Amino acid sequence: MVDQLPNLGREAVMLAEMGLDSIDDLFSDIPAEVRRDAPLDLPAPQTEEEILREAQMLLGENVSVDSRPSFLGAGLYNNYVPAMVPMLATRGEFLTAYTPYQPEVSQGMLQAMWEFQTMVSELVGLPVSNVSMYDASTAAAEAITCAVRVHDRKATQKSTVYVSEWIPPHRLSVIQNYSQGAGIEIKFLCHGDDGRLNLEQAGKAAGASAVYVEQPNAFGLLDEGIAELKGIIGENTALIVGVQPVSLGLVAAPGTYGADLVVGEGQPFGIGPTGGGPIYGLFACSKAYLRQMPGRIVGQTRDSEENPAYCLTLSTREQHIRRHKATSNICSNETLIALMGAMHMALLGPEGLRTLAERNAAACATTKSALLAIDGIEAVHPDGAHFNEFAIRIPNSAESLLNFLDKECGITGGFDLGRWWDGTANQLLVCATDQTTIEDIEDLAEGITEWLEVSA
Q: What is the pLDDT of residues 81-118, one digit of tens each?
């Protein structure tokens, strides 16, 4: 009957069935101040050719990270991705295979996912890894709620979690979003003027559900004190370490110094720093956290003929889609992107990973040395060892320097730390990777020197 009515008639019938008199009644729960009464100011209809032409014009406004010297990092890093990775990832077997609910017809995809887990587990030094998370921030938040479920199963009051005061604000925001509805109180671990964790004050975190720190931290600073943290907070408090995975080619795996859970941004492996994504998060843990682990896990078994076989194990998708009763909010993952990371890691191998880490570390050290040789430029953490990036203090605002480098020199000079924290408007986070050349570094140093002269 409804299908035979004109549009207005259908609307009236549907409203009547719901016991409503008008469309306004239907949307009455939406606050009046966010409703739009006037029609949207939209352009006239366009042909396909017109839409494509306009889209190309808008896309042309973007500046590709590979089209000019770029020293922008702050969480996404431009490492070289072998041409083999996108070639393999765009094969139909991977590109069209999403969620393998029927393992018997998805053995190739499941095996690839299992290989990814194995490589992540070996990389971070923990026995268990899942198939991936959305990104590093959701991985960190999920690790915290996972730790709380393990350590505070019978809690009758708020659980307490300590996090580093220098984690990026966007990551802290995600952690707070996950925590506020779960009865978790977030407290902060202090760092000294040298950027390192204050281990004397870290003792106050003993007895908390979890501690979350990053290695390297948001300034690219490697903190050797984190290796002592587990001994300070004790076995009853989970140590969660956020990592830059390429650094693990040189830096000790967190599992070797007591980390219970390790998370991170997998983007440096497999994909470039795309404009907002997609990216993927890493998540690994010790066996004590396995049953409360978010996401999906692929296990290796044998079929009826004793051949190796793979299947989803220990966790069902359904346990993550039960609203407030769910184990986690992750009911999917970034499988294709994660498999690109697995392909990259497999092509590198242990020796290739170490070489990549050395190239990143060398580029960072060379850039740091060149910039600190300029009069008026100071290191924020002069005595620290850095990986990928470091912070410098400049005489004027970082924003003004970045604008000058962009417009006058055609250089993306780094990240303005004033966008993250108060009191850091004159600090610039500079990143260098294996794709940074000596010529890039020289151009940046010349551009900064010119800016200092102009702004003097």
A: 999 999 999 988 887 765 555 555 578 888 999 999 99
Tell me: do 259 and 169 sit in the same domain: yes
Spatial separation of the C-alpha atoms in residues 414 and 400, rounded to whole Å: 12
Residue 222 pLDDT class (50, 70, 90 cuts)? very high
Give how far the C-alpha of residue 115 lies from the chain's centroid of Cα atoms, to the nearest Å. Answer: 21
Q: Does one domain contain both 286 and 372? A: no
Q: Using DSSP, state whether 375 is helix, strand or coil.
A: coil
Q: How far apart are CA 185 and CA 172, in angstroms?
A: 13
Distance CA 237, CA 71 (A): 37
**Residues 248 and 273 placed together within one structural domain of the fold:** yes
**Does 407 score more than 80 pLDDT?**
yes
pLDDT value at 223 more than 70: yes
Model confidence band, residue 288 (pLDDT cutoffs 50, 70, 90): very high
In a domain, residue 205? The reply is yes
Looking at the fold, whether 185 and 169 belong to one and the same domain comes out as yes
Q: Which amino acid is at 349?
A: G
Task: Please report, for residues 86, 106, 110, 294, the alpha-carbon distance to residue 303 in angstroms, rounded to integers and kept in the order given.
Answer: 32, 14, 14, 26
Q: Are residues 340 and 357 in the same domain?
A: no
- Tokens 């102009």, residue located: 454
Strands of 415-416's sheet in order across = 378-379, 389-393, 427-431, 415-416
Domain that holds residue 424: 350-455
State how far the alpha carbon of 33 is from the alpha carbons of 22, 23, 27, 39, 447, in Å.
19, 17, 13, 15, 48
User: Mean pLDDT score of the chain, rounded to an integer?
Assistant: 91
Give the C-alpha separation, 283 to 294, whole Å: 9
- Kindly tell me if the per-residue pLDDT of 2 is higher than 50: no
Give the torsion sign (CA, 359, 361, 362, 363): positive
